[in-house]
Design a protein that fits this description.
There is one protein chain. It is elongated, with a radius of gyration of 19 Å. It contains 1 helix and 4 strands. The protein has a 4-stranded antiparallel β-sheet with strand order 1-2-3-4. The protein is α+β, with helices and mostly antiparallel strands. A hairpin with a 5-residue loop joins β3 and β4.
Amino acid sequence: MAVRRGGAGKPARRGSAAPEKGEIYLEYSVLSGQMRVAAIDAESGVEVVVFGPANVSQDDIGQLAVRKLKRRLAASADDRSPPPDPTRKPDGSRFA
């Protein structure tokens, strides 16, 4: 079963072609006594997966998957910062 959550606390829009910023798709699967939840950021396509017992509530494990996805997106945003300029000294001047 797949669930579509809206961004910024809004309900998901049904039938829309373009995803909203912050929209997350959740996919639930039960595999041999375990629940697998995939959380996918609709804008970037980044996906994370969490597993838990099959008897845990979908809300709880879904929230865990969303938190993991948000951490992954924050970490990749930090990685996109430009690397330091090797020709600059710590005081801001340049090497000759």
